[in-house]
Task: inverse folding
């Protein structure tokens, strides 16, 4: 079993899509081993996305991510990282494959409904950012 970090972003929470996305996660064979509804502060968003701090979209991203509630999760299954990224689809919903979460629910590159770790190291860092060991 592999763990990955997943997030339902503010745009999807705002549009009451939590249940639909969680159902999809379970249908894909993931075990949800950690789940929280959080409202990120700007400082938390800046810390979480610090890897992008030199990018031109950083301020817009952290402003958006601190604009409303998000659902943060730890998901487990075989090949969790790659499978979750496939289920989410391409970052840009217009380029995402049919049947993916971002194609179905995403509104734009920024408001694309979900986030997921891209590697084992990233998953570990992102999980520990939001969850203590006893919460998983």
Result:
């Amino acid at each position: 079993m592999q763990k990955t970090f997943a997030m339902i972003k503010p745009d999807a929470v705002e549009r009451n899509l939590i249940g639909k996305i969680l159902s999809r996660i379970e249908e894909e064979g993931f075990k949800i081993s950690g789940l929280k509804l959080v409202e990120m502060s700007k400082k938390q968003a800046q810390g979480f996305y610090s890897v992008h701090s030199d990018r031109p979209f950083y301020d817009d991203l952290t402003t958006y991510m601190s604009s409303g509630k998000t659902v943060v999760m730890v998901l487990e299954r075989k090949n969790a990282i790659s499978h979750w990224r496939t289920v989410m689809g391409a970052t840009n919903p217009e380029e995402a494959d049919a049947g993916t979460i971002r194609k179905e629910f995403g509104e734009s590159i920024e408001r694309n409904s979900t986030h997921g770790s891209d590697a084992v190291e990233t998953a570990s860092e992102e999980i520990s950012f939001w969850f203590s060991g006893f919460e998983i």
Observations:
- The longest strand covers residues 31-39.
- The chain has one domain: 2-40+70-135.
- The radius of gyration is 14 Å.
- The chain has seven helices and four strands.
